[in-house]
Amino acid sequence: MSPVAKLFKWGTCLYEAFLALPLIGGLFIIANGWVPLAIAFLLHAVAVVVLQREHKPFMGNVLGIITSILAFIPIVGWIMHAITAFILLMEGVSASRQAPRY
After folding, report:
1. Which of 21, 61, 87, 90 has the greatest number of CB atoms lying within 10 Å of its CB?
2. How many other C-beta atoms can be found within 10 angstroms of the C-beta atom of residue 31?
3. Packing angle, helices 74-98 and 3-19, rounded to 10
4. Could you tell me if residue 49 is inside a domain?
5. Using CA of residue 36, residue 68, residue 42, residue 4, what is the dihedral sign?
6. Is the pTM of this model over 0.85?
7. What's the number of domains the chain is made of?
8. DSSP type of residue 38
9. Which long-range contacts (CB under 8 A, 24 or more apart) does 14-17 make?
10. Which residue positions in the chain have pLDDT lower than 50?
11. What pLDDT was estimated at residue 32?
12. Would residue 102 count as lying in a domain?
């Protein structure tokens, strides 16, 4: 996996994990007028393009796009951010292990 793909995979994972923090993530989203959800949407969309070109797993980022759209619903958004962060973590770990080691 290229450094750019790793950056997008792990960056979106950390961003989703931050947004999944109870109270803190929700307050961050509301305080910034739901702009963090638009930023998450754009990050996930770019990550899907980058990862798809490298033939790496990108379904976690597709779920991130769906989460960004539905996350304005308070409890649903919190749960979906946590699930998305977990799936991105699993994809990132599995993609790291598939790389050849020299």
Report:
1. 61
2. 10
3. 150
4. yes
5. positive
6. yes
7. 1
8. H
9. 15/39, 15/40, 15/43, 16/40, 16/64, 16/67, 16/81, 16/84, 16/85, 16/88, 17/81, 17/82, 17/85, 17/89
10. none
11. 94
12. no
